[in-house]
Input
Amino acid sequence: MKLQHKEIAIIGGGPGGLTLARLLQLKGARVKVYERDLNKDARVQGSPLDLHDDSGLAAMIKAGLLNEFRNSFLPGADRKKIVDEQAEVCFSDHESKAEENFGDPWFRPEIDRGTLRKILLESLEPGTVVWDSHFVSMHRQDDGWMLHFKNGDSFYADLVVGADGANSKIRPYITDTKAFYTGITMLEGNIYDAVKAAPGISALLSGGKIMAFGNNKNILMGQKGNGEIGFYASFRADEGWAAHSNLDFSDKVQLLGWFKKEYPEWSSVWYELFESAVAPFIPRPIYCMPADQTWEPRPGLTMLGDAAHVMPPFAGEGVNMAMRDALDLSEYLMSGNHGSVTEAISLYEKEMRARASAAAQESLANGEIMHSDKALAAMLEFFQKH
Ligand SMILES: Cc1cc2nc3c(=O)[nH]c(=O)nc-3n(C[C@H](O)[C@H](O)[C@H](O)COP(=O)(O)OP(=O)(O)OC[C@H]3O[C@@H](n4cnc5c(N)ncnc54)[C@H](O)[C@@H]3O)c2cc1C
Output
């Protein structure tokens, strides 16, 4: 093994970085994950993620964690309703969908982000994750890299993997290509103890997901494991919308007023979302990497997940691509079939760019449809076919 007795540093302990750490450790590699969060509980994780058969789930299987996943996923949370702006249900698979169907490529089980992170963290050797390690810079030293962190620490690594998300600080050491704004912004809200706080919306949701379409905008929402509901109002806006909207995102009354103005055709059923959400709301401008991005492989340095190819969430591929990257990179690095680590990195990156580019184009195309006047008809046709 080319990486025997070598130090591997993964920057970022999101799903991509932690999956890679687990897969490398199973093959006997020496790995540290440097994560900027202060500890494992420092940050509330966002809405649930659905794992796909050939990517997220394939990585969990390879990581030997399918049983842990099966014990912790959210049965039924993948059931969906498609509704119009009046909250009339136009499609529902609540009656027809099995709660569990592992092995079927169309079964996309949901799991809370926090639960997924916990499963991956608990699978790692003690001390693998170095918390409170905010990467700031690095320079070449010997055949590897000297890494510097905000808290003053510095560590050497022979191989560095940037898994530090959409605003990666590792990426500029590999390429100058930047993500572009897609023209879509999502406004995120969360409702705690949803059955009590938002009984109307909870009844409509019935433990699954809702996609609501009308006037070129949409609302996407889903059940979380702890009785919460997470939702996004998704719409076209310019990149600086959050700053120049003059909205105070901590003020629910203002946000309800904004919704009434911007979604004028939508039923008052939706008002409950804004009345019962916990402040603040979070505006999320949606970015995407150019489909044709490329770069020369760097010695002892690569990246995965959103750091390499952030994409819109409209095909549910982001986390799946990150975990599939981890699976492929671990195989390339540890297989022993390649002349050098740089050659393994080069082959991994070539394949990863092509795969992620296809997923990003699908996500962009879905985003266009979901924010068009044909959204409802197109989404109904898509789900009725499957
Ligand atoms: C609104 C929205 C909805 C989404 N919905 C879905 C969905 O339904 N399905 C789906 O598949 N994907 C979805 N995604 C995308 C998904 O969240 C990402 O693709 C996925 O989290 C990428 O995983 P990652 O490990 O590459 O990066 P991340 O999950 O971003 O993890 C990066 C980690 O690196 C750490 N970090 C960052 N900077 C540093 C630093 N300088 N030093 C050290 N550590 C650092 C962070 O704290 C974090 O823990 C959504 C994204 C958004 C914005």
The radius of gyration is 21 Å.
